């Protein structure tokens, strides 16, 4: 079964059957914050911060048990942290990551940040991690991608998060340093928590998606 997400729809194709499209509605009536596909499975991140996983049978989603089902994600931020977005990403090992887009405000100085969490399967607690190794994460695409070269130059490197303007707090466009941005696509270095805005000549993009040259996904 091949699954693809297009906006708020899921397309699925199996065998000789032609692709079918349908809105995914939260099976328990909950709003869906985000969706991701990996290895013919569909993962939902619901508004009560649970992770649900499904496989398709006869064109219908069948829920299955997963290590995250009974352990909702709970982030309690500091007073100076404000969350803008919550997304999930599935690694090829089927490990689920939760990624927060937020801003930090300390002494009237604001900074865009991303936090990544994974579950410690021994104590079933969500813990923040500070590296994804030789992978890159494109915020909102739902997967991590191994990068053959650790550094492609001009800010394109592994252990980073790729995002567009719409993925972060909109008021950052009013910050003094925004005039120095050469594009609306940013790269967040997980190790240093610093952001670079590469020039457009190194990638192409549409309104809400990265297409990095030399990276297949």
From TrEMBL:
PANTHER family: F-BOX ONLY PROTEIN (DUF295)-RELATED, OS07G0183000 PROTEIN-RELATED
Lineage: Eukaryota, Viridiplantae, Streptophyta, Embryophyta, Tracheophyta
Annotated KIB1-4 beta-propeller domain residues: 30-189
Name assigned to this protein: KIB1-4 beta-propeller domain-containing protein
The species this protein was found in: Arabidopsis lyrata subsp. lyrata
Origin: domain of life: Eukaryota
């Amino acid at each position: 079964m091949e699954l693809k997400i297009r906006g708020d729809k899921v397309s699925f194709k199996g065998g000789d059957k032609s692709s079918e499209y349908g809105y995914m509605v939260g099976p328990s009536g909950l709003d869906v914050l985000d969706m991701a596909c990996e290895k013919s499975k569909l993962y939902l991140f619901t508004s009560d911060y649970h992770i649900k996983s499904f496989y398709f049978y006869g064109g219908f989603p069948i829920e299955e048990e997963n290590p995250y089902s009974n352990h909702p994600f709970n982030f309690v931020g500091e007073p100076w942290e404000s969350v803008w977005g919550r997304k999930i990403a599935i690694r090829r090992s089927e490990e689920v990551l939760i990624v927060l887009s937020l801003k930090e405000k300390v002494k009237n100085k604001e900074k865009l940040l991303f936090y990544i969490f994974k579950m410690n399967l021994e104590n079933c607690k969500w813990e923040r991690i500070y590296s994804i190794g030789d992978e890159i994460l494109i915020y909102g695409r739902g997967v991590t991608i191994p990068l053959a070269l650790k550094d492609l130059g001009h800010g394109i490197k592994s252990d980073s998060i790729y995002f567009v303007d719409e993925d972060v707090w909109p008021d950052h466009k009013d910050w003094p340093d925004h005039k120095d941005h050469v594009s609306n696509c940013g790269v967040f270095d997980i190790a240093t928590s610093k952001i670079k805005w590469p020039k457009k000549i190194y990638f192409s993009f549409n309104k809400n998606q990265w297409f990095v040259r030399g990276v297949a996904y």
